[in-house]
TrEMBL record:
Record PROSITE patterns: HSP90
UniProt name for this protein: Chaperone protein HtpG
Binding site for ATP: E29, N33, D75, M80, N88, Q117, F118, G119, V120, G121, F122, T167, R348
Subunit-level organization: Homodimer.
GO MF annotations in UniProt: ATP binding; ATP hydrolysis activity; ATP-dependent protein folding chaperone; unfolded protein binding
Basic and acidic residues composition bias: residue spans: 515-526
Keyword Manganese on entry: no
The species this protein was found in: Ellagibacter isourolithinifaciens
Record-linked SUPFAM superfamilies: ATPase domain of HSP90 chaperone/DNA topoisomerase II/histidine kinase, HSP90 C-terminal domain, Ribosomal protein S5 domain 2-like
Region of interest: C: 571-649
Length: 649
């Protein structure tokens, strides 16, 4: 027996017990090695005229023997000599495939694609096997050799028998324990599942003997009561698809094929709303196939939902969901990315965070944005339905990015227009804006119908300005993060003009004329004592009472000062809090009074007559009515009812 060197023993132990976290990838690694061996022989046939070989003759075979507890992976590739077995399998982390790629880099192309990049994949087999035997016969040689090891002390190499060139890797599986069930891999279903999941797009056929049933021929003398009989038989089947759909030309793939691939691989019963293919060549070569679902998965907004694209390296699955390839606001996108150029870590189970991955992620993001913009332009009805499903997540993504994603998402967001009575974009809002308008106005509330009737909205509409109605909890946070929307300057298209976003529930919108402003100031000054009395009557519920400059039929309404609106206060009040956060965040409320309303005249007279009780009564009723209009529950409904009853007597 040849002993592993001390360093090699330590490295082997590290690989078996630490580097690989998912033991089922052993089959992926061994099939990838087999594919490399077949590829090398095919490459030899292309570069050596003495080698007469058809690509159709090349294949990989997987089999198992439940009684002997063995799994065998065989190929008819280039095989290995005795020295190559010693070098490739006796030296941990030696990569013959990587050396082949380096030596023949300029001659590789669509026909040759070496998968293996590390000399450690073979040793993943010791995660499931107590013994590994490799029998190999090099192409053009009459000799076959067997390498054998238990993965502990060392290995042996001895003469063996093999009918033709190629390699057999025979794994003797470990015995089951209370924690680990290795019998999972000793079944037709278990092996087929691993092949389809990890190696479905290896370019050579992966074949297995599979069990099937068929109806026996009906006997000639069978009576009318004959019942069909069935028999079980075995047949060699090709398990893998070989040609990945993302490597085919888009013109050669039908919509039905794309839809079927999506539904099968991403477990959805509905066709996708959009299919996006991407092929990049240059410093980094990769293919991407992306899908925008037509409906939101049930767990999209749950903490258990995990975003990400399936990552392949040379058609071999590396990760089911690579989160780094998608920003959070596009978490709904499904699909795959396949690149042979990525720098993977030693186990191929995780990625190094490098510029290659970031470059792909940036390109994927741009492609998704571009396709969604096209979706919005070409199929408005379809896009609005898409936005119903996924718009909330995009708005939340803009908020959590602190507005840095507004260049990506700004043109994709939709809000309900109070003026146009339909969903519109910021761009459409600006295009339809009134002459001289330079601000985008929005309102927040519980429903579009209720907001459309609010005095703070109708007064802005009366000025000829549109208001975006925002009923979702995330809307105001989104608007605050967005802060403004940039549009090309009419005089200089190369420069941008920022349109600030302003909540109509704020105190000062600046929509009043100089005359209206002056009139309000005079009214406030002449009724200073009344307003002080009203504020005192409300006992800290409002920051101040002011004269409204808005054109409204309402006697009074509530606006806010500062960054916390009524809607935000309501949202924050319902959020879970720690013991230290028990005090609720409050908005700074302002009671704006319509000085032209008959009720104000009544209050003036009460103030002049010294009827403090009536001023207090009216102040409380006006405030509570304003809250009811905003859809905010009253602190004391009984007190409000008693006040109204008292007024009616």
């Amino acid at each position: 027996m040849k002993k592993f060197k001390t360093e090699s023993k330590k490295l082997l132990d590290l690989m078996i017990n630490s580097i690989y976290t998912n033991r089922e990838i052993f089959l992926r690694e061994l099939i990838s090695n087999a594919s490399d061996a077949v590829d090398k022989l095919y490459f030899k046939s292309l570069t050596d005229s003495d080698v007469q070989l058809s690509k159709d003759e090349l294949a990989i075979h997987v089999g198992f023997d439940e009684g002997a507890r063995t799994i065998t992976i065989s190929d008819n590739g280039i095989g290995m000599t005795k020295d190559e077995l010693d070098k490739n399998l006796g030296t941990i982390a030696h990569s013959d495939s990587q050396a082949f790629k380096t030596d023949n880099a300029e001659q590789q192309g669509d026909d040759i694609d070496i998968i293996g990049q590390f000399g450690v994949g073979f040793y993943s087999s010791f995660m499931v096997a107590s013994k590994v035997r490799v029998v190999s016969r090099a192409f053009g040689s009459d000799e076959a050799w067997a390498w054998e090891s238990d993965g502990v002390e060392g290995y042996t190499i001895a003469e063996a028998e093999r009918a033709e060139h190629g390699t057999d890797v025979i794994l003797t599986l470990k015995e089951n324990t209370d924690e680990d069930n290795y019998d999972t891999y000793l079944s037709e279903y278990g092996l087929k599942d691993l092949i389809k999941r990890y190696s479905n797009y290896v370019r050579y056929p992966i074949q297995m003997e599979v069990s099937k049933t068929r109806e026996k021929p009906k006997p000639e003398d069978a009576g009318e009561d004959y019942k069909p009989e069935y028999e079980t038989y075995t047949e060699t089947d090709t398990i893998n698809s070989m040609i990945p759909i993302w490597k085919r030309k888009k013109s050669d793939v039908t919509d039905e094929e794309y839809n079927e691939f999506y539904k099968t691989n991403f477990h959805d019963f509905a066709d996708p709303a959009r299919t996006v293919s991407l092929h990049a060549e240059g410093a980094l070569t990769y293919d991407a196939l992306l899908f925008v679902p037509s409906r939101a998965p049930y767990d999209l907004y749950s903490k258990d939902f995990k975003k990400g694209l399936a990552l392949y390296s040379s058609n071999v699955l590396i990760m089911d969901k690579c989160e780094d390839l998608l920003p959070d606001y596009f978490n709904f996108v499904r699909g795959i990315v396949d690149s042979q150029d990525l720098t993977l870590n030693i186990s191929r189970e995780t990625l190094q965070h490098n510029s290659q991955l970031k470059a792909i992620a940036r390109r994927v993001e741009k492609k998704i944005k571009s396709d969604l913009e096209n979706f919005l332009e070409k199929d408005r009805e379809g896009y609005e339905k898409f936005f119903e499903n996924f718009g909330r997540g995009m708005k939340y993504g803009l908020y959590t990015s602190y507005g840095t994603a507004k260049d990506v998402l700004g043109d994709l967001l939709l809000f309900y227009s109070a003026k146009q009575k339909k969903m519109i974009t910021f761009k459409e809002y600006v295009k339809a804006a009134a002459d001289g308008q330079e601000t985008i106005y929005y309102a927040t509330g519980d429903s579009v119908e209720r907001m459309a009737q609010l005095p703070i909205v109708t007064t802005v509409l009366a000025k000829g300005y549109d208001v975006l109605l925002c009923p979702e909890d995330v809307d105001e946070f989104c608007m605050m993060a967005m802060s403004d929307y940039a549009v090309p300057d009419a005089a200089d298209p190369d420069s941008l003009t920022a349109w600030p976003l302003k909540n109509v529930g704020g105190e000062n919108l600046g929509l009043e004329s100089d005359e209206e402003k002056k009139e309000a100031e005079e009214t406030a000054e002449s009724n200073k004592d009344l307003f002080e009395a009203m504020k005192s009557a409300l006992d800290g519920k409002v920051e101040k009472v002011a004269v409204s400059t808005r054109q409204t039929d309402a006697p009074a309404f509530i606006t806010t000062e500062g960054g916390v609106s009524l809607k935000m206060e309501k949202i924050l009040a319902g959020a879970p809090k720690s013991a230290e956060e028990e005090s609720a965040v409050k908005s700074h409320r302002v009671l704006e009074v319509n000085a032209k309303h008959p009720v104000f005249e009544v209050m003036q007279k009460a103030q002049e007559a010294g009827d403090d009780e009536k001023v207090k009564l009216y102040s409380g009723i006006l405030y509570d009515q304003a809250l009811l209009v905003e859809g905010i529950p009253l602190d004391d409904p009984v007190a409000y009812t008693e006040a109204v009853t008292k007024l009616m007597k």
